[in-house]
Specification:
Blueprint: H1 2-15, H2 28-35, E1 40-43, H3 59-68, E2 72-81, H4 88-97, E3 106-109, E4 114-117, E5 121-130, E6 133-142, E7 146-157, E8 160-167, E9 171-173, E10 177-194, E11 197-208, H5 215-235
Antiparallel strand pairs: 1-2, 2-11, 3-4, 5-6, 6-7, 7-8, 8-10, 9-10, 10-11
């Protein structure tokens, strides 16, 4: 009986290895990817398909993205051990606030089958820091959509960091078609401690105009760019 109880407790402990803050939408294969500390990317379309529950670490990012209610959505997630990565928040903050380095991030175009730069240029136009919050306005040039006037916000607390980037201007495709309204494209990242681990959790979302002959191209272009950006930041730490 004692052996059975011990076995049951072992199985239960293993099943909750990464159970919090993740929900049942995370498959066994996806869980295994996270347990290997690899980056997991999920194309989920709607926010109802997110694989996290609302916790202190995810509350802010979920509220931000649910308010947008994007048409196209992706999650980018990685688990890292806390031990040996105690300075992770400092390192990721440095990477996120180094706006000029956004230019030149390598981006693979699936449609063309060629490498491009994610942003052709990136420059800060305004920066303000107030206690634990940094507000930045930046101009990010992204072909074929032109210059994105971006609002970037970064907040930090004990064992917690939150970042989001939002377009403030209307985006056009080759300056011919309107594809995204102001404040309808967001990249958000939350980093928080969960027991012995850091959770790096990002959501990219786009709510676009419906241009029927461009819809698939726009979805692929923007979602892949958001995934590329978040994956690049994760790779810097």
């Amino acid at each position: 009986m004692k052996k059975l109880l011990f076995l049951f407790l072992c199985i239960l402990s293993a099943s909750f290895l990464i159970a919090d803050p993740f929900n049942a939408k995370l498959s066994a294969e996806e869980r295994a990817t996270l347990e290997r500390n690899e980056v997991l990317i999920r194309n989920i379309d709607k926010m109802k398909n997110v694989c996290v529950t609302e916790t202190a670490g995810t509350k802010q990012i979920l509220a931000t993205m649910k308010a947008l209610n994007p048409v196209y959505t992706a999650e980018i997630i990685q688990i890292r051990p806390y031990a040996g990565n105690e300075d992770l928040l400092t390192v990721i903050k440095s990477a996120l606030l180094n706006i000029p380095d956004y230019a030149g991030i390598p981006y693979w175009s699936v449609r063309v089958g060629k490498w491009y730069e994610l942003y052709d240029s990136a420059k800060i136009t305004s920066l303000e820091t107030n206690e634990n919050k940094t507000n930045i306005l930046a101009d990010l040039e992204m072909s074929p959509f032109g210059v994105i006037n971006a609002r970037i916000t970064l907040e930090e607390g004990k064992d917690y960091l939150y970042y989001d980037m939002t377009n403030l201007n209307k985006l056009r495709y080759h300056d011919r078609f309107n594809v995204i309204k102001p404040e309808n494209m967001k990249s958000a990242i939350a980093v928080f401690r969960d027991g012995d681990n850091w959770v790096l959790y990002a959501i990219g979302g786009v709510d676009t105009y419906k241009v029927f002959f461009l819809e698939e191209r726009v979805e692929t272009s923007f979602i892949n760019r958001i995934k590329t950006f978040c994956n690049f930041i994760f790779s810097k730490i």
